[in-house]
């Protein structure tokens, strides 16, 4: 085989999302239609291994741990997706998020070094060196995922139409951090907006990330065992008391945060993803619907620019009412309800009381969303893609070579 630069290009791309709770690899196939306005990617498969790469920080050999972790995951991809018969080595882009942002820089460097070794040992090649994506990068990738998804993607229409639709905003509640991104015209003086990447229009973005605002990190910091007011398990759940705990936590970290708050403009729909689906809306309005009993609107996604099976569309008032019910639910009954098709992991289930109070407090106090606002949508997928930032990252790397002078993201 010749030098890597002269290798045959494989018709595949892999994005590795090295998150705090696990490492997920997304496999995409190029369909031959990649252009300045279309990534031309078809999702093939997503695989996840637990725990995440950040767990390697607790191991003596951090690099060796990361190498084994990534090599094992990619070997599974070779066996299940490519059936161990790759004619060329696909490029892999590994992006770590909040879990690695919280580590010491020396630990992070060792883990990323080992991850790169694992990519090569598994028979793949690096698209770029494994790196920690900034919170802003992650927020923009979230936004690209939402607005590039589906057969009737919104961004090309934004650039061509005289009366373009407003791109959709996104709120992503991860394990260690929370991302928010949306377009706007007027920004606070202290915030410098980000120019829309890849010549996809003249919009400017508000895109921010708040470290330690992720569900797992916040839950661990606030909830003190099964007798806590935010816990369902011990039978002592109290939504009002949980609200007070949550507000104290948010105020503490907001006080010392340099992130600028901004209210989304009127008319901007907000898509809520990750734990906002798995630990919140899907539990409240599907798993525990017999308990909450609110008959929340479930759209057919016709009002969104991408296909999905369903999208919950609650108001904050409905979330508040559901939280009051879920926090006092019987834990054994809730676990039994979770056994029906479409159930979630027990870890997500136990965090639902806290997640409900947490999200309401964040959306009202930080983003100033009205209690009866009908702009919230919680879909199970973005078109053919799962509801995550990975497709946005893949789209960026696929489309960027068609625009060689395009910087990463510019302010």
For this entry, give a set of tags.
single chain; six-stranded mixed sheet; Nucleotidyltransferase, domain 5; 411 residues; eight-stranded mixed sheet; 16 strands
In short:
The chain is of the alpha/beta class.
Secondary structure topology:
Layout: E1 12-18, E2 23-30, E3 41-49, H1 62-80, E4 91-96, H2 98-101, H3 105-121, E5 125-126, E6 131-132, H4 135-148, H5 154-160, E7 169-173, E8 177-184, E9 194-195, E10 204-211, H6 215-222, H7 239-255, E11 270-274, H8 275-287, H9 289-292, E12 298-299, E13 311-312, H10 316-326, H11 331-337, H12 346-350, H13 352-365, E14 376-379, E15 381-382, E16 385-386, H14 390-399
Parallel strand pairs: 1-4, 4-5, 4-6, 7-11, 11-14
Antiparallel strand pairs: 1-2, 2-3, 7-8, 8-10, 9-10, 12-13, 13-14, 15-16
Which geometry do the CA atoms define?
globular
User: Mind telling me the C-alpha Rg?
Assistant: 21 Å
Helix content: 25-40%
Strand order in the largest sheet: 9-10-8-7-11-14-13-12
Identify the CATH class of the largest domain: Alpha Beta
Strand content: 15-25%
CATH architecture of the largest domain: 2-Layer Sandwich
Overall number of domains? 2
Provide the structure class: alpha/beta
Number of strands: 16
Q: H/E series, N to C?
A: EEEHEHHEEHHEEEEHHEHHEEHHHHEEEH
Oligomer type: single chain
Mean pLDDT: 89
Q: Could you give me the name of the CATH homologous superfamily of the largest domain?
A: Exopolyphosphatase. Domain 2
Q: Can you describe this structure?
A:
The protein is α/β, with parallel strands linked by helices and 411 residues long. It has 2 domains: 4-133, Nucleotidyltransferase, domain 5, CATH 3.30.420.40; 149-386, Nucleotidyltransferase, domain 5. It is 36% helix and 18% strand. The strands form 3 sheets. An 8-stranded mixed beta sheet has the order 9-10-8-7-11-14-13-12, sandwiched between helices. Strands 1, 2, 3, 4, 5 and 6 form a 6-stranded mixed beta sheet that branches. A two-stranded antiparallel sheet has the order 15-16. Helix 4 (135-148) packs across helix 14 (390-399), helix 8 (275-287) crosses helix 13 (352-365) and helix 10 packs antiparallel against helix 13 (352-365). The relative contact order is 0.15.
């Amino acid at each position: 085989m010749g030098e890597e630069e002269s290798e045959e290009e494989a018709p595949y791309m892999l994005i590795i999302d090295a998150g705090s709770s696990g490492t997920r690899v997304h496999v995409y196939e190029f369909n031959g239609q990649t252009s300045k306005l279309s990534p031309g990617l078809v999702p093939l498969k997503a695989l996840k291994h637990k725990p995440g790469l950040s767990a390697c920080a607790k191991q003596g050999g951090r690099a060796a741990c990361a190498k084994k972790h990534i090599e094992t995951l990619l070997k599974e991809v070779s066996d299940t997706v490519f059936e161990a018969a790759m004619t060329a080595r696909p490029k892999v882009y590994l992006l770590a998020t909040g879990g690695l942002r919280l580590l010491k820089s020396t630990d992070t460097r060792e883990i990323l070094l080992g991850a790169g070794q694992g990519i090569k040992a598994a028979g793949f090649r690096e698209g770029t060196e494994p790196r920690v994506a900034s919170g802003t990068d992650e927020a923009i990738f979230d936004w690209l995922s939402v607005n590039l998804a589906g057969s009737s993607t919104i961004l090309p229409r934004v650039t061509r139409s005289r009366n373009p639709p407003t791109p959709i905003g996104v709120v992503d509640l991860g394990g260690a951090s929370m991302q928010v991104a949306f377009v706007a015209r007027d920004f606070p003086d202290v915030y410098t907006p980000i120019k829309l990447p890849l010549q996809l229009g003249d919009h400017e973005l508000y895109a921010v990330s708040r470290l330690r605002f992720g569900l797992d990190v916040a839950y661990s910091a606030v909830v003190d065992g099964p007798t806590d007011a935010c816990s369902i398990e011990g039978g002592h759940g109290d939504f009002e008391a949980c609200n007070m705990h949550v507000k104290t936590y948010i105020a503490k970290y907001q006080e010392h945060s340099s992130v600028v708050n901004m209210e989304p403009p009127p008319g901007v729909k907000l898509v809520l993803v990750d734990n906002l689906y798995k630990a919140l809306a899907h539990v409240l309005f599907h798993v525990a619907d017999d308990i909450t009993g609110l008959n929340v609107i479930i759209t057919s996604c016709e009002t969104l620019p991408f296909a999905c099976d369903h999208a919950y569309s609650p108001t904050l008032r409905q979330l508040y009412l559901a939280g009051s019910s879920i926090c006092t639910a019987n834990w054994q009954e809730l676990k039994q309800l979770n056994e029906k098709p479409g159930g979630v992991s027990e870890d997500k289930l136990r965090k639902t009381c806290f997640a409900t109070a947490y999200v309401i407090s964040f959306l009202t106090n930080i983003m100033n969303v009205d209690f009866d606002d009908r702009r919230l949508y919680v879909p199970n997928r973005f078109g053919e893609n799962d509801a995550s930032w990975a497709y946005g990252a893949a789209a960026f790397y696929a489309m960027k070579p068609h625009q060689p002078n395009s910087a990463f993201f510019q302010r």
